[in-house]
From TrEMBL, chain A:
Keywords: Cell membrane, Membrane, Transmembrane, Transmembrane helix. InterPro entries: ABC_transp_permease. Its main location: membrane. This is ABC transporter permease. It is found in: Cell membrane. The lineage of its organism: Bacteria, Bacillati, Bacillota, Bacilli, Bacillales. GO terms for molecular function: transmembrane transporter activity. GO terms for cellular component: plasma membrane. It is a multi-pass membrane protein. The chain crosses the membrane at residues 12-36, 56-77, 84-102, 108-129, 194-212, 242-262, 282-305, 325-344. Coiled coil: none annotated. Pfam families: BPD_transp_2.
TrEMBL record, chain B:
Coiled coil: none annotated. GO terms for molecular function: ATP binding; ATP hydrolysis activity. One of its GO terms (cellular component) is plasma membrane. It is a peripheral membrane protein. It is found in: Cell membrane. It comes from Robertmurraya kyonggiensis. Its main location: membrane. Belongs to the ABC transporter superfamily. Keywords: ATP-binding, Cell membrane, Membrane, Nucleotide-binding, Repeat, Translocase, Transport. It comes from the Bacteria. This is ABC transporter ATP-binding protein. The keyword Transferase does not apply. PROSITE patterns: ABC_TRANSPORTER_1 (PS00211), ABC_TRANSPORTER_2 (PS50893). Residues 5-240, 257-501 form the ABC transporter domain.
């Protein structure tokens, strides 16, 4: 048994790695078939990710909201819920951060945390609503969160247009004192848009790990996720825990929105379509096996692939959409991890 | 001697354990051969080897004297070996016939020939007295009928040797009787049966010979006519087993649980516990006897706060608890061994250690200001595991990986260790083997003798009769009689449980 447990943990690391390799391999085949040179293609992609300090900076920048979105999905998942509404929670968080960053006048040391907190509260409320509906009336959270995504998309657009419109489909920018941007980080990475958001993301990841693994709250949340009947029998408040889980998950997503608001963009665009970050969060959580530290690594990979995609187009003439195909393939192989397990066990048997 | 099946010196290993160690099983033609062993002794593994699901590391298998290699279930089928699984493998929205032909559909010009198949099913059903309607849908027929469909499935495929995996576990007493008749008919027609079970009564009733395995080792084969349940139990467990529980006269003192005019409604708003009155005193075991579905489950859920109470009062140690939360009631001093250990008793994905603090994790020393202290939790778990002899590789093993008996021991350890003044035990030995049952019974008596009030609910008459100091008979949500087990026979009790009136039975 002990051996199996160890294997289980090992599998959680090996399977994603293997999926990535397989995704890249199949991507190469697709490039070959479509008449591109995979070596130069991947060379350009790699270069775009790690080639110079600026690309590394951009990779980390792109990863910050992805980490938080992944944590949001992973947290809900660990407690038996599927939060597909990260996208909407991210949007309301973004807006809340922009508003607080724009409207209030505070010293930076207070203004930044307050703006992030506003985003967390907004996202938390947006997650709490489906949580309460699920807890009270057993409405499935997947359906409600999908609906809430659309409500978030159009109401944030409307609110910007009505109250925060600076022209050119953009909101007013946030004040300097609320910004996460850093000349120090930018200089260190040759002028990338890297900001302090990554620190926030890592703190939240540690927070998630601590809550779930070390506290009575996490013990209850996971117990309710695994077995509601036993949780009731043990005297836990199942309804409260479901609502709480969705609220925390939503708060994580809201903070992801604040990364865009206070870091990368410093304002919010009137959005006509979803950002996609929330949905990518599902993929990140899956690849990271819902583990906070796995999620950080997965988000870095996805962030890097996304920021390096134009490079691949530029230098090797490979269409940048191919990166989406590779990401899709990696997700496919993670989801098909059964297959990989099968192959790996075969290998290890033959090796013996 | 002519054997239809010979499994000689079979050895099967899994990483870390030897599931079957040098086991020999020889089945004669036309006999019912019992395979007896405790949960986890290796019965299922041995049968899976015979059925081709596992490959043995050592040993040989002979069918009708011919050495064979059974590489997968299809080979087993071809050799005439059929398995009636404990958990049925049926498609619920298919008909009986469709299920039976599944996997080997007879075709006529590319179309499935249901008619001929149905005719054949009907013939088989008649021949063995199964009375199964070939056109009935699985979802519309009873569990007993579904089992017969499983039997028909093997017969349809031409099975000569049928393996029954704990077939009576899911059946009602009436259905068990019918199944025994069916088995008789099968052997009368020349089939051979291997019956996997840990119920000694059944073996004594239907089997010709019995092979016993214990902890993966073959103990031997005995003629059933030359043995008795005590000897079989001793062979299975490896020591003397006491069926009659030794206990002193109860010394009841104060009333711990007092239920007055309790009404509990079920999810369809129908009252299932109706103005029920009950008292349990410290130092006694009150057994609730009754046929399943007469309000036992709802009564317990009402007392423990898992189900809302419509009206009436529940007092524990004189304190009104009728509308308190489960947690408050637990804290008042109630231990609850739930009816369904997988659904209520355990979080299967948690380790056995984490499960040991399911009601106390928020208290010191297991946590401090909301932060868990895993060292203390696992320390506690380790000592409970030792004290209650829970067989687990370690306290870090997921509860799911433990056998049923050990899971139950874990629950009992947890509930008893809190020293509750009221201990509720609902079906505490369901599905367990004699060794575990004996252990649990002695624990319940021990708790009684420590001055706890024990409320026992069981559908097993033996258990209620053996353990209780008083028996309350529940019928349609009411306690219809309270009797003294020493002055009552099983027949009288059975009559009361069925709603009959008692005349001669002394009321206490």
């Amino acid at each position: 048994m002990q051996k199996l447990l160890k294997n289980q943990r090992l599998f959680n690391i090996v399977v994603p790695l293997f999926s990535i390799i397989l995704g890249i391999l199949v991507g190469a085949i697709i490039m070959l078939v479509s008449g591109y040179d995979p070596v130069t293609g991947y060379g350009a992609l790699f270069n775009g990710m790690f080639g110079n300090p600026k690309s590394i900076g951009e990779m980390i920048r792109a990863a910050s909201p992805l980490i938080l979105a992944g944590l949001a999905v992973g947290f809900a998942f660990k407690t038996g819920l599927f939060n597909i509404g990260v996208e909407g929670q991210l949007l309301v968080g973004w807006l809340a951060a922009v508003y607080v960053g724009y409207a209030l006048d505070l010293p930076a040391i207070i203004h930044v945390p307050v703006s992030i907190l506003a985003a967390a509260i907004a996202g938390g409320i947006w997650g709490m609503i489906p949580g309460l509906l699920k807890a009270r009336f057993k409405v499935h959270e997947v359906i409600v969160t999908i609906m809430m995504n659309y409500i978030a998309l159009y109401s944030t657009a409307d609110i910007i247009k009505r109250y925060l419109y600076a022209g050119n489909e953009k909101s007013f920018p946030i004040k300097e004192s609320a910004s996460l941007a850093s000349t120090f980080l930018a200089d260190m990475t040759n002028g990338s848009r890297l900001h302090w958001g990554i620190v926030v993301a890592v703190i939240v990841a540690v927070f998630m790990w601590f809550i779930l693994e070390k506290t009575t709250t996490g013990y209850e949340l996971k117990a309710v996720g695994y077995n509601q009947h036993a949780s009731m029998y043990a005297g836990m408040n199942v309804q409260k825990n479901i609502a709480l889980s969705m609220t925390i998950s939503g708060a994580f997503a809201g903070i992801a929105g604040s990364m865009e608001a206070l870091g990368t963009f410093q304002n919010m665009t009137v959005m006509s379509a979803f950002t996609g970050t929330g949905f990518d969060g599902i993929a990140v959580a899956l690849l990271g096996a819902n583990n906070p530290f796995g999620i950080i690594l997965a988000a870095l990979l996805f962030g890097g692939l996304t920021t390096a995609a134009p490079q691949m187009n530029f230098n090797a003439n490979v269409p940048q959409e191919l990166v989406d195909v590779i990401i899709a393939l990696i997700i496919f192989f993670v989801a098909a991890s059964y297959l990989i397990r099968y192959i790996l066990t075969r290998f290890s048997k033959e090796g013996k | 001697m002519e054997y239809v099946i010979e499994m000689n010196n079979i050895r099967k290993e899994f990483p870390g354990i030897v599931a079957n160690d040098n086991i020999t099983l020889q089945v004669k033609k036309g006999e019912i051969h019992a395979l007896l062993g405790e949960n986890g002794a290796g019965k299922s593994t041995l049968m899976n080897v015979l059925f081709g699901l596992y490959q043995p590391e050592k040993g040989e298998i002979k069918v009708k004297g011919q050495p064979v290699k059974i590489t997968d279930p299809n080979v087993a089928n071809r050799l005439g070996i059929g398995m009636v699984h404990q958990h049925f493998m049926l498609v619920h929205n298919f008909t009986v016939t469709e299920n039976i032909i599944l996997g080997s559909e007879p075709t006529k010009g590319g179309k499935i020939n249901i008619k001929d198949a149905a005719k054949k099913v009907e013939e088989l059903s008649k021949r063995y007295g199964l009375s199964v309607d070939p056109y009935a849908k699985i979802e519309d027929i009873s569990v007993g009928m579904q089992q017969r469909v499983e039997i028909l499935k093997t017969l349809y495929r031409g099975a000569e040797i049928l393996i029954f995996d704990e077939p009576t576990a899911v059946l009602t007493p009436q259905e068990i009787k019918e199944l025994i008749q069916i088995m008789g008919k099968l052997v009368a027609e020349g089939k051979s049966i291997i019956l996997i079970t840990h119920k000694l009564k059944e073996i004594m009733e239907v089997c010709d010979r019995c092979t016993v395995i214990r902890k993966g080792k073959g103990i031997g084969t005995v003629e059933v006519s030359e043995t008795d349940p005590d000897q079989l139990a001793a062979l299975m467990v490896g020591r003397e087993v006491h069926f009659k529980v030794d206990k002193q006269e109860a010394q009841p003192t104060d009333v711990v649980l007092e239920v007055k005019d309790l009404v509990v409604i079920d999810s369809r708003n129908i009252p299932v516990v109706e103005e029920l009155n009950l008292e349990v005193k410290a130092g006694e075991i009150l057994g609730i006897a009754g046929v399943d579905g007469n309000g036992q489950t709802e009564l317990i859920e009402g007392i423990t706060g898992l189900r809302k109470i419509k009206s009436g009062s529940v007092k524990i140690n004189g304190k009104e608890t009728a509308h308190l939360s489960t947690r408050k009631i637990t804290e008042t001093g109630v231990g609850h061994i739930p009816e369904d250990r997988h659904k209520h008793g355990l979080v299967l994905d948690y380790t056995i250690g984490e499960n040991m603090v399911l009601q106390t994790y928020y208290q010191k020393p297991y946590s401090n200001s909301g932060v868990l202290n895993y060292n203390k939790i696992y320390e506690k778990a380790k000592s409970l595991i030792e004290e209650y002899d829970v067989r687990t590789p370690s306290e870090f093993t997921p509860a799911r990986a433990l056998s049923g008996g050990n899971q139950q021991k874990g629950i009992i350890a947890r509930e008893v260790d809190r020293s509750p003044s009221l201990l509720i035990a609902s079906q505490p030995t369901r599905g367990l083997d004699v060794g575990a049952i004996e252990f649990i019974h002695s624990k319940l008596i021990e708790e009684r003798d420590k001055g706890r009030a024990v409320l026992l609910v069981s559908f097993e008459l033996d258990e209620v009769m053996n353990l209780s100091d008083r028996i309350a008979v529940i019928y349609e949500g009411k306690i219809v009689a309270i009797v003294d087990p020493k002055e009552t026979t099983e027949q009288e009790l059975g009559l009361l449980m069925a709603g009959g009136k008692k005349e001669s039975v002394g009321v206490s």
